Amino acid sequence: MAATFAVDHASETTHHVSFDLAELTKMYDFTGLVVAVTGGAGILGSEMARALAGCGAQVAILDLNIEPAKALIHSLGPHGKQIALHQCDVLNRDSVAKAART
């Protein structure tokens, strides 16, 4: 699976970035590690969670709105089992502590 992103600020500074998830997973092995992704239900965070799960990590998505991340889990097939969703406000210590306990 390849992903391509266009970062467009002004015509003279447009950059196209792409990566191949299969190649990325060959380079990095996060098997046995747990990674928390804050803002993991957003565009950038969900792609980071996808890549980390593809590299073997157990991923905890922390976000105020976890609904968008449910589609990510579904799209990952078997790797979706590696992702846990936690509704959390990372600016609130009690909210983070509660997410850590679950």
Overall description:
This protein is of the alpha/beta class and 102 residues long. Helix content is 36%, strand content 27%. It has four helices and five strands; from the N terminus they run E-E-H-E-H-E-H-E-H. The strands form two sheets. Strands 3-4-5 form a three-stranded parallel β-sheet, with helices on one face. Strands 1-2 form a two-stranded antiparallel sheet. A hairpin with a 7-residue loop joins strand 1 and strand 2.
Give a brief outline of the structure:
The chain contains 4 helices and 5 strands. With about 100 residues, the chain is of the alpha/beta class. The protein has one domain (about 30-100): Rossmann fold.
Secondary-structure topology with pairs:
Elements: E1 2-7, E2 15-20, H1 21-27, E3 34-38, H2 43-54, E4 58-63, H3 67-75, E5 83-87, H4 93-101
Parallel strand pairs: 3-4, 4-5
Antiparallel strand pairs: 1-2
Tell me the Rg in angstroms.
15 Å
Cα shape: globular
Structural class assignment: alpha/beta
CATH H-level superfamily title: NAD(P)-binding Rossmann-like Domain
Q: Count the DSSP helices.
A: 4
Terminal Cα span = 32 Å
- Low-confidence sequence ranges: 1-9
What attributes does this structure have?
102 residues, Rossmann fold, two-stranded antiparallel ribbon, globular
